[in-house]
Structure formats: C-alpha cells, structure tokens
Amino acid sequence: MDGYTRETLERLPLAETVLRLWQHALSGQILRGIFEEHRGRSYEGVLSFEALVQLVADALLEHQGSGRQAFQRAGEAGELPTSQEAVYGKLRRLPISLSNGFLFGGTRRLEEVVPAAGSPLPESLRDFECLIIDGKKLKHLPKRMKVARGVKGAVLGGKAVAALSWETGLAVAMNGHLDGEASDAPLMPGLMEQLDARRSGPRLFIEDRQFCDLVQPWLCMRHKEDRFLIRYHPKVKFYRDKTRRLVRGVDAQGRSYVQEWGWLGGPKDTRRLYVRRITLYRKGEENVILVTDLLDDERYPAEDLLAAYLARWGIERVFQRITEVFHLNNLIATSAEGTLFQFAFCLLLYNLTEIIRRYLAAQQKLPVERISLEQLFYDVQRQLIAWSELTEPAATVRALRPIDDPRQLRRYLKAILAPTWTDRWLKAPPKKHAPKRKSHDSPAIPGAHTSLHRLLQASTAR
Questions:
Q1: Sign of the torsion formed by the C-alpha atoms of 195, 328, 350 and 166
Q2: 110 CB contacts (<8 Å, ≥6 apart)?
Q3: What's the CA gap between 257 and 281, in Å, rounded?
Q4: Separation CA 348–CA 352 (nearest Å)
Q5: What torsion, rounded to 10 degrees, do the Cα atoms 99, 105, 107, 113 define?
Q6: Separation CA 374–CA 380 (nearest Å)
Q7: CA of 169: how far to CAs of 20, 146, 191, 353, 369, in Å?
Q8: pLDDT tens, residue order, the chain (462 aa)
Q9: 3-state SS, one letter per residue, for the chain
Q10: Residues linked to residue 129 through DSSP beta bridges, in sequence order
C-alpha cells in the first residue's frame, strides 16, 4: 500500500470499517455463491449480479437512492458494461428468492463479527434467541410502468415479513411477496424455513396481533424447544381455565396487570392450545394483551414478557430508519421485485451501521441506544463519498487485503474505531412538548389552503 492510500485510510476510519465489513460479508466469491443458490431462472448475461449490487450500493450510499445518478456516473467512469435501461430491466426481473438470500447470506457473515456485549434480555429469557417478527409494505413506488400511469393514489411495491434478533439488533431474514396488499401470515412459512437454517437453540418468537390465530402459534412450535409471545386478537376466542385463579401484579412503571390461563380456540377445534394470557392496563392508552405458551409465571415473570413484547417496537423503528436514513422512500426500481431487493439491501446497510454503532458504544462505554444511527450514517456516507472520489478501485483492492478470521477482524475493527468518536453522534435528549391547545377563534381558511404571505398580511392588519 502506498503512502497516499495509507494516509487516506487513516483519515477515513468509518469508510474503511464499512468496506471491510462489506468485504467479509459480500465479497465477489460470496455474491456469486448467493446468486447461484437463489437465482431461480434468472441469469447474469453482460451485467453480473456482483456489478448490479455495486451499482445499487453506490445509489444508496452516495446518491441518496438515485439510481440515475449512480448509473450515469458508472457509465462515465467506464464501469457500466451495458445501458442504464438494461440495469433497470435487471432490477425489474430479480426473483424474490434472490432478495431473501442476499439478506440472509450477508447477515450470516456479519453475525460472525458482531462485538460481544451484555445481553439486553431479561434474565429469565436468556436461554432463548428472541426473534421479533413484523411485516412491511413497500410504498412510494414510481408510477413509470404503463399500468400504473394515471392511477389515482399511492401504488405499493412488494410486501415482506422480516425477523430481527433482539440480542444483536440485526435483521436476520426476510420473506417477500409481490403483492403489497398481501397479509403477513401467509409469508411466515417461508421466513421460518430460513430461520430454521440458522437455528442453534431454543427461540422465542415475538409477534404482533395480526399473527394471532390458530396457525401461527403451531408454526412457532414446530421445534419442541421453541416458544411464542403474541399480542392477542379477539378474532380468536379465549376460554379461561376456571380451575386456576387469576394472578395480579404491578409492572416497573406502576401499571397493573392480570394473568389468566386457558384455551385459545373453541372446544371442537383440533388446533386449540393451552396458553397463558397477560393483560396490561394502560391509562389513556389501549391495553396490551399477550398470549404465550410460557405457562410458568414464576420461571417466566409477566414483567419480563411484557418488556420483551414492548421491545417489539424495535423492528418498527428499524423500518422507519431504513425508510428515512437508507433512502427506502426513494425506490430505484418500478417493479415489486426491484422494491423487495432494495428493501433487502437497506436492511443489510442497517445491519452494517448497527455493528459500527455497537463497536463505538462498547469503546465509549455507552448504551447502544445513546448513539444516533442517523448521525452516524451521515458521517459514514461522507467518508465513503470522500474515499470514492480520492482513490481508484484498484487502490481499494490493494489496500483492503481480506481478513478471513472473524476473531482477527473483530480485533482489527476495534482498533480502527478506538480513537474514532465525536459527540455529534450522541442522541439529543428527549424534549417535553407542551400539549397543543385548540384555538377557538381561528378563522376558517377558504378552500382548505392559503399562502404564508397572506397570513402575514392578515396578521399585520389586526
């Protein structure tokens, strides 16, 4: 490595960290393996899958989700072996299996280098891998396809269900569907197949109320040691076991709850199962009602299960972050297949940034949530853009010799990031906002809109 490249690397530690994580998770050889395993009937032709991945990475990491900017610049640099139209066409035809496999394969490699940290799980649940499941509709699809032109209202792309590991914070798998209006439940068997491929012990599946039926719990219990924690939906009737007394308690925030045992499903339904139901009463908010097959309330306290379910909002925040931070609201492709690939890509970028955040949190002895993912990724983008402008691709290949041993790579990343810190990455303290007061003397606005200039004039005339 020449002196110039070495100096550039030293000045851009976040960029080097991302490049090394990417190299470990999705090197050319790994991408070729993922493509061969999951490509279905698709083929590469002039534009390889590896080249397509690099083009999408450039669009999301350097051009705020603009495929046009990334593809044009690649063409100017002589790095685009085909036309821009062919790139869009390739994205439009990517099979769902390839999007699923891209996220699953890349994340399996990233999990090898997640920094060790204290488990965030309640002590009673630490024998489980807690997996939070939720669905995501892909919105803001550009109406460039002929059938979508002139359609009033929003057009959805694909739909996906994803699994988030509570302990590592990483999105570990997804299963997609072309219909953005599809229900979450039918996508679960495909997701479970992927999760079974990485199973290493008992799991606790944490799911929202749309998964509360007489199919999903049995799907979660396919393996003897696995358990479920699902928000109750009244579409499935609960029959209380009157031979067991109610158990009441108060959680850490002083809110009361009640526990009861009984059957989910009617007496004549062969799928019915015995569960424990926990109802948390929240003043001024909707009550939280959970059902679980963790029947022992002494071994698995209600407070721990309530905390586990409330942590399910973590995956909602992930979806919000990848939409706003990783530019999922700026869809590159015009087909459902392309939107699902971009969703998988954004989840993978989230995983990369989350790993960096965890290294920094460990170095600074801070809770991970104290570091802003948005502020950190902003600097990651700046450094990656600087690296691409200041160096040639050949220099990158020479500078980043692969570190194959995950333990050695963890030590290397820790050393890179040890002196890297700025208080800009800290989250701003939460602010208490005064409740909005309704004004009873505000004049109605004709036509439901006006201009700021007219408002200012009216204010001055009073």
A1: negative
A2: 21, 24, 25, 170, 348, 351, 352, 355
A3: 6
A4: 6
A5: -160
A6: 10
A7: 20, 40, 18, 11, 11
A8: 678 888 998 899 999 999 999 999 999 999 999 999 999 888 888 899 999 999 999 999 999 889 999 999 999 988 899 999 999 999 999 999 999 999 999 999 999 999 977 667 889 999 999 999 999 999 888 888 888 877 777 888 999 999 999 989 999 999 999 999 999 999 999 999 999 999 999 999 999 999 999 999 999 999 999 999 999 999 999 999 999 999 999 998 899 999 999 999 999 999 999 999 999 999 989 999 999 999 999 999 999 999 999 877 767 778 888 888 888 888 898 899 999 999 999 999 999 999 999 999 999 999 998 999 999 999 999 999 999 999 888 888 888 888 999 999 999 999 999 999 999 999 988 766 555 555 555 566 666 666 666 766 777 776
A9: CCHHHHHHHHHCHHHHHHHHHHHHHHCHHHHHHHHHHHCCCCCCCCCCHHHHHHHHHHHHHHCCCCHHHHHHHHHHCCCCCCCHHHHHHHHHCCCHHHHHHHHHHHHHHHHHHCCCCCCCCCHHHCCCEEEEEEEEECCCCCCCCHHHCCCCCCCCCCEEEEEEECCCCCEEEEEEECCCCCCCHHHHHHHHHHHHHCCCCCEEEEECHHHCCCCHHHHHCCCCCCEEEEECCCCCCEEECCCCCCEEEECCCCCEEEEEEEEECCCCCCCCEEEEEEEECCCCCCCEEEEECCCCCCCCCHHHHHHHHHCCHHHHHHHHHHHHCCCCCCCCCCCHHHHHHHHHHHHHHHHHHHHHHHHHHHHHCCCHHHECHHHHHHHHHHHHHHHHHHCCHHHHHHHCCCCCCHHHHHHHHHHHHCCCCCHHHECCCCCCCCCCCCCCCCCCCHHHCCCHHHHHHHHHHC
A10: 203
Looking up tokens 């963790």 gives 294
CA distance 105 to 31: 9
Token pair of 154, please?
Answer: 């929003």
Residue 447 tokens, joined: 């036509």
d(CA 211, CA 220): 11
Token readout for 165 is 């590991």
Q: What is the value of pTM for the model shown?
A: 0.90
Report the distance separating Cα 79 and Cα 51, nearest Å.
9
